[in-house]
């Protein structure tokens, strides 16, 4: 399994997935950490503070992705998160504290699993809990 953790300091999870400075890309094989690599978040670098949608996005963000089944837009509207996926490469899952509705919808559409953690959780703790199966996975609404 290959997953991305948003981080601003390379030690703890960032509070917002798409706005993090970096992603820690972790690979787990046979119940053990196989690799860990820090990559720059091209979305934050190229667009931080640039998207007008971030101002109204706050009403849709929660720490548990609640309310993501209803919101604005017609389902075909994307805010251009391709640079996030360019940063992370092919991944199976993400770990986050919170994210905007559009990022959530893109992850679901791409069949990327979403796991939630508390703010300030260390990357080492996240990796350990991912290996042990302790992280809470968000199930998309059908």
List the helices and strands and how they pair.
Blueprint (H helix, E strand, L loop, with lengths): L1 E6 L14 E8 L2 E9 L1 H6 L6 H4 L24 H7 L4 E4 L4 H9 L3 E4 L6 H10 L3 E3 L4
Parallel strand pairs: 1-4, 4-5
Antiparallel strand pairs: 1-2, 2-3, 5-6
Describe the structure.
- The chain is of the alpha/beta class and 142 residues long.
- It contains five helices and six strands, in the order βββαααβαβαβ.
- Strand 2 and strand 3 form a beta hairpin.
- The protein is globular, with a radius of gyration of 14 Å.
Short précis:
With 142 residues, this protein is α/β, with parallel strands linked by helices. It has helices at residues 42-47, 54-57, 82-88, 101-109, 123-132; strands at residues 2-7, 22-29, 32-40, 93-96, 113-116, 136-138.
Instruction: List the quaternary state of the chains.
Output: single chain
Q: How much strand?
A: 15-25%
Whole-Å distance between the termini? 24 Å
| Poorly predicted segments | 48-78
- Largest sheet, strands/sense/barrel: 6 strands, mixed
Within the largest sheet, what's the order of strands? 3-2-1-4-5-6
Q: Provide the residue-averaged pLDDT.
A: 79
**C-alpha Rg (nearest Å):** 14 Å
